[in-house]
Amino acid sequence: METPGDPPNAVPDRSRWGRLHVLDWIAIGLAVLGAVFVLTGLLPRADAEATMRRIIPILIFLGTVVVLAELTAVAGVFDALATRVAVTARGSFRALFWLCVGFASVTTIALNLDTTAVLLTPVMIALARALNVPPTPLAMTTVWLANTASLLLPVSNLTNILASDRVDLDPVPWAARMWWPQLVAVAVTALLLWWWYWRPARAGADPFVPPPPYVPPDRVLYRTALAACLLFVAGILAGVEIGIASGAAAAILVAGFAIRARHRLRPALVPWRLLVFVTGLFLVVQTIGRHGLDTVMGTLIGTDPGAEGALRAGAVGALFSNVVNNLPAYLAGEAVIAADRHTQLLALLIGTNVGPLATPWASLATLIWYERCRAAGVAVPLGRFVATSAALAVLATAATVTALLVGPGA
């Protein structure tokens, strides 16, 4: 949380062990456990080295994209975008809701869920503060749709890229197969968002008074940050590896701050917990996979080629995503599904895309979102988050797999 006297968008000081969050301890514990597995031989060194080579691009992306988001927030870009959204809604809370749902959905579909978590979360929080409304409904809109709106295109989620190789679908036929499940997933998400988060907040916020035009504190840094974000987005659309795109954009912005606001460049900008967590997670899950996880996944998913097999694949994908993370959950499930069972594989994909909501570590996007909320001083009630997100995960996964089975192209 921000303390009195902190500058806007300040990164909380986490240097003292006594102030570590429970998720900090989980990240450290995973890293230590992964190291123990390697040292004891439960995970062969060659396998561990291969895993590290595989996740280095992910670590580069996470480290640089968080720095990009932090400095972009300081430069005022998110405040400016939030003001524009508020003005467009013309004082209507319901219009604001649909604008936020559409904004989050389009960002996730066209770019990817991690981009939504990084760039849109601060916009939503800044918007809530500009309107003097509770930030939780807007923040929840971002994290829920970052996951549930990531089905329509291969670029929308890293798991989609992995699955598209297996089902051999280019973007257009992929979208033709997944547009109906995607629509169902977004509809269920919007319904629950309104009922559980936006409707209770509406009483004191409808109608609202749009904020005055935003004036950035440093126009040069503002323009530099805006250019860096546009470069990042353009790189993703052009197919540049995400770590390279985020690294180049972050480097430009860091250079700008080094010239005009050097005091803002601090070690605390580096998201150490995310990097430690991801490293430990992959080492631990790989070890577990070698010692029985693959067998368990095969037993739970089963071999039924019809509706039962698809529903089981979706349920298992969602469950294991919330236990270990959606990337290793998808890879473990993919390994036990026959290559010609495309519907079952897409059902697994739905479970690992729509379902990773009930725990903060269920997907990288959820973890990044949680980190963005903490950095902005927004306290997310974990109990309510887990309860409502788990309900959405169950309902949306079931509805979306059903849409896959009965919709066009089934």
From TrEMBL:
The membrane-topology field of this record reads: Multi-pass membrane protein
Q: What keywords sit in the KW lines?
A: Arsenical resistance, Cell membrane, Membrane, Transmembrane, Transmembrane helix, Transport
Principal subcellular localization: membrane
Extract the InterPro entries matched here: Arsenical_pump_ArsB, Cit_transptr-like_dom
Q: Which residues form the Citrate transporter-like domain?
A: 23-341
Subcellular location(s) of the protein:
Cell membrane
Q: Where are the transmembrane segments?
A: 22-43, 55-75, 95-126, 138-159, 179-199, 220-238, 274-293, 345-370, 382-406
The entry assigns this protein to a family as follows: Belongs to the ArsB family.
Write the protein's name. Arsenic transporter
Origin species, per record, is Micromonospora aurantiaca
